[in-house]
Every structure is written in C-alpha cells, then in structure tokens.
C-alpha cells in the first residue's frame, strides 16, 4: 500500500462542489497521507486482539471488560492448530510465569499460551501487558494463600485444574498443561508421538533405562502410581475426558484426604481409568522430575542434551525454588525478561 502511495501518479481526490485534484506532493496531499498512516498505525495492531474478535463485549476506556471474557473466547483466541498450552497462576507466582514464558518463547510456542488467572490482579496484569492471553474462571481465589504448598488455599487452587482441562477438551482442543515452576530446554511437542489420548511423566526419582516402557508404571505396594499432575498433554477424546471427570470425582470424594495436594487424586483416577484410555508415559530423560535433575549430577551428565522440560519440584518454598533455578542457570528473567511476551514485570 505504501509503495503505491509513494510511486503512483498524482493521487486524485474529487470534490463534488469544486472538482479539486490533490497532488500527493502538495501540502494537502501530504496531510492526507499522514492521516492515513496514523489511522493504520492505530488500528492494525488491534485486528488480532479480543477488541476486534469480540466487538460486542463491554468496554471501558478502550479496554475489554476482562471479567466477562470467557474460557471459550480465550481458547479460541490463543489456539493454534487446535492446541492450547495452559497454566494456572496466582499473583505471587507471576515471576515464575514470566520465567516459564521466556523458555516457551524460545521454542516459538508462546502464542498458544492461555493463562488461567486465579485472581483479578493477575487477570488484569497479564491482559494489560499481553491482551487476550489471560482469563479468570469464577470464583476468584485469595492470591496470597493459593501459592503456599500444602495449604487449603493451595488445594483450592490446584483442585480446579481438572475442571479447566475438561472444559477445554469439551470445546474440542488439544491441551498441554504445565506448572509454571518449569523451564523448557527443547520443544516438547516433538515427543508427543502417535495419537494417544493422554501423555504423562513419572514423578519418581528411580532411574529408568533410556528405552523404558511408555506404559503406565505398575503401582507400588499401596496400589497407586506416582505420575506427575504438573505436565499433561490431552487430546479431546473420550478417554481423556473420562480421566478428567474421574479426577474431579476423586477430589470431591476425598477432599479432606487430599487437602493440600491434588496429585494423589490424579493417580487414583489414572489407575481406575487406565483400561479405558490410551496412555503414553513420556521419556524420563526428556521430562525429568526435579528430584532427579537437581540432585543427581551423574545422571544429568549421562543424559546431557536429552532434557526437554525441567520441573523444579521436590523442594518446598517460593524462595527455595527461585534460588535453585538461579543456582542451575534456569532463572531467566534476570537477564532475558524482554524475551517474554509480558516483558519486564514491575
């Protein structure tokens, strides 16, 4: 368009009353050109934003009313090739979200990220920096207690996870879920081989052979497996939906038993539905638990170059997690915050 404006013959503008012709190089022609460029500069960046996609929403000062932004709308906005990458975040964990986003951006998958905010402060903060990529599914939680592992607030925070995932599956999307205390070192999608319904990682620290089975591991003497509920990939098929429904049922039935940690309920649900869905256990070398990656230097060296997503678990405490990331060169936001879609958070 700009090429045509600058190199075409005189731009003609006719007035029904005076029949004037305005040359592009005249004063009026230049003013017209500047006005056109300003209009394009203001409105083109909004074409892909929720303002453009959902023009019937309620707006205030040219900002969407994010309280009315639904999960269906948000998923439609971020999905690429039918896939959404989901995380759930409360306000205290925004630095970890930003750290995770840098690593996701390095693998060129940030555009399909949907942040499910658990409080309004998080919802507004993210959408101010990165419009359309955060949604809140009511009710909002207390942001100051939801990040403390083992607390009632933490359980309320994590126990909503299968409800969000089930809803996205019912909307027809492939869903990858990550906790934000993770860092991507490679692209995980290359490891989602085949067309299985559900992909998981083992949370045990016992070293497996590189060619280990991709079946669900046998249960321990208590009759349960120890699969991590923090890295999941699901396809919108009957078995995956059944698993999410069973996970929700387990949480409701044993809320007092599971209070503070939703992973045992997830494993019980897995064991009870394993014969009804197509499972795939991801390779340990690519998706190591934190109890292995951060504590077994020999294994890390032997599997160098194979690590894909590192999970900073097997440690309790916000500051402890941050320090361990720093100690291992995985706290990226100190020097690379501009690589995140959120930029530098104040």
From TrEMBL:
This is Glycosyltransferase. One of its GO terms (biological process) is rhamnogalacturonan II biosynthetic process. Its EC number is 2.4.2.-. InterPro entries: Nucl-diP-sugar_transferase (IPR005069), Nucleotide-diphossugar_trans (IPR029044), UDP-D-xylose:L-fucose_XylT (IPR052636). Keywords: Cell wall biogenesis/degradation, Glycosyltransferase, Golgi apparatus, Membrane, Signal-anchor, Transferase, Transmembrane, Transmembrane helix. GO terms for cellular component: Golgi membrane. It comes from the Eukaryota. PANTHER family: GLYCOSYLTRANSFERASE (PTHR47032:SF3), UDP-D-XYLOSE:L-FUCOSE ALPHA-1,3-D-XYLOSYLTRANSFERASE-RELATED (PTHR47032). The chain crosses the membrane at residues 30-47. It is a single-pass type II membrane protein. Residues 109-325 form the Nucleotide-diphospho-sugar transferase domain. It is an enzyme of class 2 (transferase). One of its GO terms (molecular function) is UDP-xylosyltransferase activity. Pfam families: Nucleotid_trans (PF03407). It is found in: Golgi apparatus membrane. Belongs to the glycosyltransferase 77 family.
């Amino acid at each position: 368009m700009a090429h045509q404006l600058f190199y075409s013959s005189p731009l003609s503008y006719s007035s029904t009353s005076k029949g004037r012709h305005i040359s592009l190089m005249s004063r009026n022609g230049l003013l017209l050109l500047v006005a056109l460029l300003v209009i394009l500069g203001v409105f083109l960046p909004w074409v892909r934003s929720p303002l453009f996609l959902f023009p019937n929403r309620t707006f205030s000062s040219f900002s969407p009313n994010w309280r009315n932004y639904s999960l269906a709308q948000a998923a439609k906005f971020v999905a690429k090739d039918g896939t959404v990458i989901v995380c759930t975040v409360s306000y205290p964990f925004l630095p970890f979200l930003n750290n995770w986003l840098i690593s996701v951006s390095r693998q060129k998958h940030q555009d399909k990220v949907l942040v499910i905010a658990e409080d309004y402060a998080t919802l507004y903060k993210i959408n101010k920096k990165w419009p359309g990529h955060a949604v809140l599914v009511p009710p909002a939680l207390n942001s100051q207690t939801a990040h403390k592992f083992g607390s009632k607030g933490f359980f309320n925070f994590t126990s909503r996870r299968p409800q969000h995932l089930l809803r996205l599956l019912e909307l027809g999307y492939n869903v990858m879920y990550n906790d934000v205390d993770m860092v991507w070192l490679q692209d995980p999608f290359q490891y989602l081989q085949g067309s299985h319904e559900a992909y998981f990682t083992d949370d045990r620290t016992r070293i497996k052979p590189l060619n280990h089975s991709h079946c669900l591991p046998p249960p321990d003497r208590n009759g349960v497996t120890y699969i991590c509920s923090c890295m999941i990939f699901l396809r919108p098929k009957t078995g995956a939906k059944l698993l999410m429904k069973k996970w929700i049922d387990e949480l409701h039935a044993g809320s007092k038993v599971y209070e503070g940690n939703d992973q045992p309920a997830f494993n019980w649900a897995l064991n009870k539905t394993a014969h009804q869905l197509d499972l795939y256990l991801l390779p340990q070398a690519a998706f190591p638990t934190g109890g292995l990656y951060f504590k077994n230097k020999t294994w890390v060296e032997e599997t160098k170059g194979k690590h894909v997503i590192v999970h900073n678990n097997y440690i309790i405490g916000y500051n402890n997690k941050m320090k361990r990331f720093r100690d291992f060169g995985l706290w990226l936001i100190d020097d690379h915050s501009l690589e995140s879609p959120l930029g530098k958070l104040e």
